[in-house]
UniProtKB/TrEMBL annotation:
EC number: 3.1.11.6
Catalytic activity from the UniProt record: Exonucleolytic cleavage in either 5'- to 3'- or 3'- to 5'-direction to yield nucleoside 5'-phosphates
Protein's organism: Candidatus Schekmanbacteria bacterium RIFCSPLOWO2_12_FULL_38_15
Enzyme class per UniProt: hydrolase
Gene: xseA
Segment forming the signal sequence: none
OB-fold nucleic acid binding domain ranges (all copies): 7-100
InterPro entries, sorted: Exonuc_VII_L (IPR003753), Exonuc_VII_lsu_C (IPR020579), OB-fold_nuc-bd_dom (IPR025824)
GO terms of molecular function: exodeoxyribonuclease VII activity; nucleic acid binding
Any one GO cellular component localisation term in the record: exodeoxyribonuclease VII complex
Name this protein carries in UniProt: Exodeoxyribonuclease 7 large subunit
Assembly with partners or alone: Heterooligomer composed of large and small subunits.
Keyword Nuclease part of the UniProt annotation: yes
Recorded family membership: Belongs to the XseA family.
GO biological process per UniProt: DNA catabolic process
Amino acid sequence: MVETQIYTISKITQLIKEKLELNFNNIWIEGEISNLKIPSSGHIYFTLKDEFAQIQAVIFKTQRRFIKFDVKDGLSVIVNGRITVYEARGIYQIIIDYIEPKGIGALQLAFEQLKVKLAEEGLFEKKFKKKLPFFPKKIGIVTSPTGAAIRDIIHVINRRFANLHILVYPVKVQGDEAAKEIAYGIEELNKFSDIDVLIVGRGGGSIEDLWAFNEEIVARAIFASKIPVISAVGHEIDYTISDFVADVRAPTPSAAAELVISSKEEIQKNLHFLQSRLKDKFLSKIKYLNKSLELLISLCQAYTPLSLIRKYYQKTDELTSRINRETLNLISEKKESLIIMYGKFLAHKPTYRISSYQGILKQIENRLQSAMKVLIANYKKEYSKRFEILNFFNPYSQMERGYCICQKSNDGNLIKSISQVKTGEQLSLTLKDGKISCEVN
């Protein structure tokens, strides 16, 4: 009788695992990702499926760091790995060593995913772009110290405007550590308060060579920079995430150098233009000030002694006319009152009231004469005061105190300053009692 072999669950599972791992240790599978889970351990678990079947898949944390794109549900992928059995649950699964999107390269997908992410956060918006300085005194450069890019940048800058201060922060521009070094270099150069502009870039290469400039850490360092940043990566056809975040994108490192500093000829042209504008503004300002000065001179002339004398003469005439007019009006009013009163007296003729009215008339006459005397005295006093003021401003009154009027003999112009005369000129001095001719020596 043949003895039947009986296996334990553990044993049969181990045998199946050995068979699968032996025959399927390097296999390629394509499918769609679903049921994606990323626990705190950092491993990635998901189901890889097609229309008719599915298999469990795992990417361990040690391999995850090599994946450039975001693994998401619904993404069609091609994976490479080995088939094994997860003994605790008795299910078979593929442990993935390599994964890439189906129909599009992993790097290109990572590029598009990061571009969308940063755009949604607003890192590409124009309102955050800083203007480049017109004439930078110090230029910072983050690039490889041995590549063609640094040589091209320095050559162009020296050709356009020699002896500018250039500070180079040397970094790796490709490889696993390149992105961290570039981001750190940008942060370090931002600690220099005298750097006016940064150039971040490298020469041309494949998408893998340029990938450091597509990393999120570099993009965020550029966005956080307080100094304006020019991205100069690869050739004109090459676009990186750094180009979108930077304040200005240059198609090549040489073009970045041309953007950062104008040639001497261009600067001189701009200076001539600014000089011309400044001259025009200066002449316009002088013209305006001349007009203001002419206005002030005309205002000052209105307050000379002669103009004041004329003003007081006119006011005196007005006061005299007013005195005469008010005196006549007062006399006329009182005269009319007397006539009315006298008419009433004549109309009634009461003999016993004659003496009383005579007394009243005498009082009125006395009050009228007193008022007339006071009014005339006040007007005479005001008149005398005005006359004294006029007399004080009269140039001929000043002559009584030893002053004279000095004029040029040839044209009669008044002399107010020694700057108006020259040696040998004939002058005429008017004194209180005559004129004297003299010569300047």
